[in-house]
Specification:
3 domains; two-stranded antiparallel sheet; two-stranded antiparallel ribbon; 8 helices; about 55% helix; about 10% strand
């Protein structure tokens, strides 16, 4: 792995531009021997242009490091860092000017541990109220995780058969509670997916809410 190889990316180029402007400004500030008034005016005009360009480049870096607020204005260090704001900002700026290497843009897969540019932040969505999960995974591990979370044809057929054989009795509030526990048990055993279990529990809870309004809910089969 060529971890020390420079990548010459966007941030590298921006950093090198700032360093080149620094060198240019230092050079233009020094008058030449025997400088004529017309040469002095041209030099000062060039110096002004270089400083304005440097200020614009620095503003771009500041926005990159600190971000912007809801009005679009660039944040100040005090808005981002809780303590020692000026020192923290200068540290980040110093690191920004250091060249990026191939190693800097590689992430470690949380599953197999490989470090590569092919490792990305992956999102696994779950039905409400369960929160979505985020992991850094390579393509191979992401495919493996996706396959494990998606039931195959045989698993789906088995779950369908289980649901079709399950007798649903909603005749009393106690029976409704028993059915909710049965559905949760099937979900825990992997015979029902989260979305399917949530839908069935929602239906049973709707039936449970009818008691006291309509008396009794009849028995049926799923």
């Amino acid at each position: 792995m060529t971890s020390k190889k420079l990548i010459h990316g966007f941030l590298d180029k921006l950093g090198r531009n700032i360093q080149a402007l620094d060198a240019g400004i230092d050079s233009v500030r020094k008058p030449a021997k025997g400088e004529k008034p017309s040469d002095r005016r041209a030099r000062l005009k060039l110096l002004r242009d270089l400083i304005e360009l440097q200020n614009a480049s620095m503003a771009a870096v500041k926005a990159h490091l600190l971000g912007r607020d809801e009005t679009g204005s660039v944040n100040e260090p005090e808005d981002v860092y809780s303590e020692n704001a000026a020192w923290e900002f200068e540290r980040d700026f110093k690191r920004f000017l250091e060249p990026w290497t191939q190693k800097d843009i590689e992430f470690e897969c949380e599953d197999c541990g490989v470090e590569s540019e092919e490792v990305y932040r992956r999102t696994f969505s779950h039905p409400y109220p369960q929160e979505d999960e985020h992991f850094y995974l390579c393509d191979k591990c992401y495919e493996k995780q996706t396959t494990q979370q998606s039931p195959g044809k045989d698993d789906s057929a088995e779950a369908d058969a289980t649901r079709s054989d399950m007798k649903v009795n909603l005749s009393t509030p106690e029976k409704c509670q028993e059915m909710i526990q049965k559905v949760k048990a099937l979900e825990a055993a992997g015979q029902l997916g989260p979305a399917q279990a949530n839908a069935m529990i929602g239906t049973i809870q709707n039936a449970l809410s009818l008691f006291g309004k309509q008396g009794t809910v009849g028995s049926t089969s799923a």
